[in-house]
Amino acid sequence: MVRAWIDRYDPADYPRVGERVADILLEGLAGPGSRWPLVDPPLGRADAGPTEPFLRAATALINEEGYRGASVEKISARLSVTKGSFYHHNDNKDDLVANCFARTFAILRGEQDAAEARGGPGWERLTSCARALVRHQFSETGPLLRGAAVGALPDSLRSAISLTMRRLWERLAFPIMDGIADGSIRAVDATITAQVVSSMIDAASDLDRWCAAAEAGNAADLFARPLFLGVYAQTD
Question: What residues does each domain of the chain span?
Fold first, then answer.
């Protein structure tokens, strides 16, 4: 995910960016008195429809094998349907992939909006959103499409999808800045922190590959908590 945003910085500033990322990882984000929430927020629901199984299967395959590896044959085989059934519900692969991104964007936007609607200090809104999105990776609505998939998209899709993804992830800077202002988040670089948090959420789709115990009920505690509290924070 760093490749998706590092180009906004001059190469001469890479060491400074690295120092700020390291500070976030080591020290976390919590301001004085902020605690890791113990209760998960309710998950929003993705709109179900006749193409939903294809969207989920295609998303999982693209995450695993990339855009080129996720062929119509493999998507159909994963669902145990024929290619004819695939084309009955989808015009072509590119349209399906575009719809996969639209579905992921709807989930990202929905959980961000829900966290804002619940209100509270910036820390509460940010952790609420992050916990919900990590849980989506393991729920029946998951996984979310990985940001790395953008680079392999056809030119006709790449520009608009990349811009939308960047805008949605950068929305995380709003609760971060609010948290810094209200004291619930310590003083950090809000723009870089938004990218680090989004990278964590994005990478959570692969968590079960190297942590067999990961599931919807504990994924946020295993993966998100160390980022928010710092990797050296003691567990309760």
Answer: 12-42+104-229
CA pair distance 142, 122, nearest whole angstrom: 26
Cβ-contact 65, 59 below 8 angstroms: no
Question: Pick from 217, 223, 226, 225: which is nearest to 204 by CA?
Answer: 223
Length of the chain measured in residues: 236
- Classify residue 224 by its DSSP letter: I
Q: Give burial (CB, 10 Å; 0-12/13-18/19+) of 212.
A: exposed
HEC secondary structure over 139-178: CCCCCCCCHHHHHHCCHHHHHHHHHHHHHHHHCCHHHHHH
The pTM for the full model equals: 0.88
> Measured between alpha carbons, how far is 187 from 205 in angstroms, rounded to an integer?
29
Q: What is the pLDDT of residues 124-140, one digit of tens each?
A: 999 999 999 999 998 88
Closest CA to 30 of 195, 199, 182: 182
Was domain 12-42+104-229 assigned CATH 1.10.357? yes
Separation between Cα atoms, residue 95 and residue 98, nearest integer Å: 5
Distances (CA, A) of 81 to 77, 89, 199, 216: 6, 11, 34, 28
Which three-class secondary structure state does DSSP give residue 126?
A: helix
Q: What is the pLDDT of residues 46-63, one digit of tens each?
A: 666 667 888 888 888 888
Residue 198 in contact with residue 176, Cβ under 8 Å?
Answer: no
Q: Give the chain's end-to-end CA distance (angstroms, integer).
A: 30
